[in-house]
Amino acid sequence: MPASKPLTPEQRRARARLAAYVQWSRTPDRTARTATARTAFMERFERQVDPEGIHPPEVRAQMAEAAKRAYFVGLRLRGTRKAGGDAS
């Protein structure tokens, strides 16, 4: 059997997209499936804003939410800079 040709980047992306769509088509509860990742994502911000764990949980949660919002605003800002041709 001949060796298969390596996939182009476009073919790899299409294959990954296909696999993702197949997996999601077999997932009845999307929220439950992603719960672990969402929890870990928020824990990252909680550790960032309160590494010693000294604040009460509700205060830490508010601080973490603000840090998450700042993270996404920063991503958006960096994206607009790159789209405008500024590579910084």
Describe this structure in words.
The chain has 88 residues and is mostly helical. The chain has one domain (10-83). It contains three helices and no strands. The protein has helices at residues 9-25, 30-49, 57-83. Helix 2 (30-49) packs across helix 3 (57-83). The longest helix has 27 residues, at 57-83. The chain starts with 8 loop residues before the first helix and ends in a 5-residue tail after the last helix.
In short:
The protein is mainly α. Helix content is 73%, strand content 0%. The model has no long low-confidence stretch (mean pLDDT 92).
Annotation, overall tally of beta strands: 0
Average pLDDT figure: 92
Label the overall shape. Answer: extended
Report the oligomer: single chain
- The total tally of domains equals 1
Beta percentage is: under 5%
Structural class: mainly alpha
Discrete helix count: 3
Give the helices and strands as they follow along the chain.
Answer: HHH
Cα-to-Cα separation, first versus last residue: 49 Å
Low-confidence stretches: none
